[in-house]
Amino acid sequence: MGQRALAVMHGVIPDEQRTILGSLLPAMENRGFTVEIVGVDDLDSVDLAGLAFICVTGSPDSVYDEKLNWVAPERQFLQQADAASVPILGVCFGGQILASALGGSVSPSPRPEHGFTEIDTTRPELVSAGPWMEFHHDTITPPDNAEVIARTEHNVQAFTVRRHLGLQFHPEITPECFDAWRIGFTTRKRPIGESGVDIAAVAADIRRRAAAAAADADELLGRFLIHAGVTAPVA
């Protein structure tokens, strides 16, 4: 298995790309992976050969927004990765487009979720109960062949298909990552707090839980690698 890990970004300015990867970036690099960051518009330049895995990150956009000319090509890229048996870790929007690429769908959530939330999990050895950081307004309907392994009352939180793992929450969250959400996404059309979310309270919780959240993200990445059958270059 190769030592390259690919992180897919959606409209993130170059200066904020590593920050938006949050605690997942050191979790990857500390295991010896070389992390290649690529914008969604440059996926046609990616060589799937030798990739250990792909991490698809978040976005303020929606998979079902037909005005977005990059969603269909990204979906096709993920289908090609699946056909090449490259494991995919999808985070929030990344989990949503992974579900869509594999035969599921995405729609507006009846109950958007924001802030740290405990989830109901049937496979705690892969995805624990958290609490995990939620910040989304859409919801996943997984493909028929998926195993849904975590939920909240209104939203699927985690699913597996073969070697892939799709997540609705944000394990990568750090205080710096949350700050970067405000300025890093070139496609953000509305302020991050426009939905009535108490942004100051959420930011305070992120700061308070920073160390625990980073440890949880590191553990989750390790569990994903075991699930996917990926051997890290450095134990």
From TrEMBL:
Among InterPro entries, the record links this protein to:
ChyE-like, Class_I_gatase-like, GATASE
Q: Which residues form the Glutamine amidotransferase domain?
A: 14-177
Query: Cross-referenced Gene3D superfamilies, in alphabetical order?
Result: 3.40.50.880
Top-level taxon of origin: Bacteria
Q: Name one GO cellular component term.
A: cytosol
Q: What is this protein called?
A: Glutamine amidotransferase domain-containing protein
Q: Pfam family example for this protein? A: GATase
* Stored PANTHER family: GLUTAMINE AMIDOTRANSFERASE YLR126C-RELATED (PTHR42695)
